[in-house]
Amino acid sequence: MNVLVIGGGNMGMTYAEAIAKSNFLTSGSLMIFDKSEEKQAELRASNLFVVHAQLNTCLPAADVVLIAVKPIHASGLMAEMKPMVSAGQLFVSIMAGVTIDTIKQGLGIGKVVRAMPNLPALVGLGMTSFTASEQVSRLELAAVERLLDTTGRSINLSSESEIDASTGISGSGPAYIFYFMQALMDAALKMGFHEENARLLVGQTFAGAVELFNSSDLSPEAWMAKVASKGGTTRAALDSMDDNNVNALIQEAAYAAFRRAEELGKQTGGKEAVHA
Ligand SMILES: NC(=O)C1=CN([C@@H]2O[C@H](COP(=O)(O)OP(=O)(O)OC[C@H]3O[C@@H](n4cnc5c(N)ncnc54)[C@H](OP(=O)(O)O)[C@@H]3O)[C@@H](O)[C@H]2O)C=CC1
Ligand SMILES: O=C(O)[C@@H]1CCC=N1
């Protein structure tokens, strides 16, 4: 199987490296294309895949094409790709909000998987949600799942609406965690800690809490109760957050990302029925 990654930025590069290192493909069958010469040089330096400077030297030879450019570049790229694609090829898009229907129409093909990964894919701890058009067979979907799983874990969802929703939770989610970490770092610095110590206090607290969360089926609320002693320090902090409606505000932020994914979809085209 020949796989082509289009776009060698944060996510495209991450996928290309993860796929290359997984030994899922035979040597020489992983290709990457980026339009910038500077990026091509950077990609060549990694020596893990075949770097292309032109679409016509790689696109026709690909069985699976992973599209990893920004949504704003989607229509220009697809117009360029259209004369070179064929019906047997399978297209996997990780572009936020760009619908399956838009990709089918843009490329004039039928086999599309729409996926939403997240940045921890960089360290093999990614969370990717995906859904596919009806033309994608179970066998093809299983092969795509194996590709996606080289960057972490994945979940096959039954609708594009769920992909938009998962964008608001896991796709954009790492940034919310970093937001919270930054706020705690800011507080630590104000309390007089040096940057290095603030980083250690915050980073290890997050790492430990996540490890505990993943170690059992307990809810975050149940874990909060284990930290908070009656009349103690944690209760004071949690009461302050409740008084300031922090839970509702975080939920509203996740919905804002969900709505933005829907908006991006409306800007680029309509929705269509999909199967899980
Ligand atoms: N970053 C994240 O956490 C996540 C991102 N995504 C999605 O992943 C996609 C990529 O994001 P990200 O990797 O952060 O973006 P980047 O901007 O880092 O990478 C995109 C790359 O594609 C290149 N490019 C643009 N147009 C073309 C073209 N026509 N042909 C070939 N290459 C092209 C860009 O070059 P140049 O810089 O010169 O424009 C850039 O190198 C987006 O659609 C985003 O929605 C999904 C989940 C998480
Ligand atoms: O912010 C974005 O649009 C992309 C999609 C999810 C994470 N980054």
From TrEMBL:
Xref: PANTHER family: PYRROLINE-5-CARBOXYLATE REDUCTASE, PYRROLINE-5-CARBOXYLATE REDUCTASE 3
Family, per entry: Belongs to the pyrroline-5-carboxylate reductase family.
Record gene name: proC
Residues reported to bind NADP(+): 6-11, 68-71
Annotated ranges, domain Pyrroline-5-carboxylate reductase catalytic N-terminal: 3-97
GO biological process: L-proline biosynthetic process
Keywords annotated in UniProt: Amino-acid biosynthesis, Cytoplasm, NADP, Oxidoreductase, Proline biosynthesis
Reported function: Catalyzes the reduction of 1-pyrroline-5-carboxylate (PCA) to L-proline.
UniProt pathway: Amino-acid biosynthesis; L-proline biosynthesis; L-proline from L-glutamate 5-semialdehyde: step 1/1
The EC number(s) this enzyme carries: 1.5.1.2
Protein name: Pyrroline-5-carboxylate reductase
Pfam families: F420_oxidored, P5CR_dimer
Organism lineage string: Bacteria, Pseudomonadati, Bacteroidota, Sphingobacteriia, Sphingobacteriales
UniProt GO cellular component terms: cytoplasm
Compartment annotation: Cytoplasm
Occurrences of domain Pyrroline-5-carboxylate reductase dimerisation (ranges): 160-264
Keyword Amino-acid biosynthesis applies: yes
GO molecular function: pyrroline-5-carboxylate reductase activity
Organism superkingdom: Bacteria
Reaction it catalyzes: L-proline + NAD(+) = (S)-1-pyrroline-5-carboxylate + NADH + 2 H(+); L-proline + NADP(+) = (S)-1-pyrroline-5-carboxylate + NADPH + 2 H(+)
